[in-house]
Amino acid sequence: MATINLVDLKKNYGPVPAVKGINLSVADGELIVLVGPSGCGKSTLLRMVAGLESVTSGRIEIGGRDVVRAEPAERDIAMVFQNYALYPHMSVRQNLEYGLKNRGTPREEIDRRVREAADILEIGPMLDRKPRQLSGGQRQRVAMGRAIVREPAAFLFDEPLSNLDAKLRVQMRVEIRKLQRRLKTTSLYVTHDQLEAMTLADRLVVMNGGLVEQIGTPVEVYDRPATLFVAGFIGSPPMNLISVEGLASAGQSLPLPRGTDIVGIRPDELTLDAPAGAHVALPGTVELLEPIGGESHLHVMLGNGQTVILSVPGRPDIAEGAAVTVHAEHAQMHPFSKETGRRTDAVANP
Amino acid sequence: MQTKRTIFPNKLLPYLLLTPQLAVTLIFFIWPAAQAVKSSFEREDPFGFRTTFIWFENYTRLFSEATYLNSVGKTALFAISVTLLSMSLSLLLAVAVNRVLRTNRLYTTLLVWPYAVAPVVVGILWWFMFNPSIGIAPYLMRGLGIDWNHRIDGTDAMLLVIMAASWKQISYNFLFFVAGLQSVPQSLTEAAAIDGAGPFKRFWTIVFPLLSPTTFFLLIVNINYAMFDTFGIIDATTSGGPAQATNILVYKVYADGFLGLNIGSSAAQSVVLMLIVIALTAVQFRFVERRVQY
């Protein structure tokens, strides 16, 4: 149980900056997901918190204590690695006990905690097996178990589900969420999978190029992306970003904040039928129709040559090549400035 | 397992293609080995005119002979010392190099050089350095009050051959240990660090156990090396002396057979060595092939 504070945290590899000054406060018991494309510095940030990477400048506080100079072992954290990092020559039980034994925990206490963790994760029958005798999902559980038995101040997850197949990933995602709710342990979770990020996080930290683009709850980030990058990164299919000139060339004008030259519209906010409120209408041709079950994705090329994606329910009876008009309500538009990359209708948060 | 199979239309051709290798094996390995086994059951008169078949007398005599039993003891001492010394030093060097990130290629290259030196040259090198009359090492040691003379002192002689033989083998062990260390995933030591294990504990509880296949392989190779490949080093430094102090089994075969001209006993000794090699090879195949399990 602890808070984590990152103050102006920076990391350079030689002359190359990897993390360029991060400020973040994690409340006690909160699950924060760091999400971003590969190379954005999210893993480096996590490893700095773990003490596996040195810090170039800035402060890391865990439970109010500055730990920048502390060894990983002294930080009272547990980490779940992408490749699980289970000790292959030890049985599952020995894997779970290792950290406790190193800390001189009494035998009865070790047994109790291992039994509890095994119950929670349902790995009791596997305690005497070696990691290589386990499936991917089971190894993942053991890796979680190794973190749980320590009863640390914070959990650090480094893309823990990326080695699992799609079905298992969904299942483990749900379990991690339940487990974290139950244990109420402060957690930092790194992933590049935005679906994982959206479903797990209490708050999301969207990172790009070593900087934080936006911090907020998943709903906040989805509903009001602070920057063009976040708008394009969160959401699948991604938000359509249409230049204001494109709108103007289609003969559409609308009230926009000063400095807006790009508007973003979510694929499911674009409609073929005209909506009730004030809206714009853009003529185009259907390039591609992708039925994906309950909904379909419609790729429409607008008059200015730009393609937008509509997400429409069911399977619309439209042929590829047909001429359609795409409608978007004014209220659903996100105005951005191309130059600053930020929203123009509000003071963006970070 | 899928194998590539070539079908020869001519029945004779495959045998013809095998002939050179078979000839080499038969002439240089099987035939001399058979001769050694045959001679080990015979006694030859001093002038080589007459040989008598004497069953196991060479062997029974061998094992009641004090010098032979002494040689067995010296060999055990020598082999164990060389194996432990060269393996522990090379592991230490490998761990050190593995920690250095930028210059480790340079260190690796430098540390591999001794392996390219021929055993006899190694022997001469150390003989020079430790030569009681002209060597630098005894000169320095005299300054420290140590009197070194491997020509007179059996212990000094044994130390010298152990040092020389270990030095040459360090390179080989080092390469294998470096490769072994690099195959231990970084994340395991990181996980252990988070689990509260200090560097020393991490090494002994995580890295070393994971190195065990490499260590076991090297153990067998080093025993083999110390027992059979060190002839050149012994010959160039001590020639088995003083007073049998460094007369290891493989050197004694040569000394008794070619210098002492006791062909029967020498042959019996080489048959004993052959059995040891066979046993070591069997162990190696049995366990190294299967790998030390973890």
TrEMBL record, chain A:
It comes from Devosia oryzisoli. Residues 4-234 form the ABC transporter domain. Pfam families: ABC_tran, TOBE_2. Its main location: membrane. This is Sn-glycerol-3-phosphate import ATP-binding protein UgpC. Keywords: ATP-binding, Cell inner membrane, Cell membrane, Membrane, Nucleotide-binding, Sugar transport, Translocase, Transport. One of its GO terms (molecular function) is ATP hydrolysis activity. GO terms for cellular component: ATP-binding cassette (ABC) transporter complex, substrate-binding subunit-containing.
From TrEMBL, chain B:
PROSITE patterns: ABC_TM1. Keywords: Cell inner membrane, Cell membrane, Membrane, Transmembrane, Transmembrane helix, Transport. Its main location: membrane. The keyword Cell inner membrane applies. The chain crosses the membrane at residues 12-34, 76-98, 110-130, 157-181, 202-221, 267-288. PANTHER family: BLL4140 PROTEIN, SN-GLYCEROL-3-PHOSPHATE TRANSPORT SYSTEM PERMEASE PROTEIN UGPA. This is sn-glycerol-3-phosphate transport system permease protein UgpA.
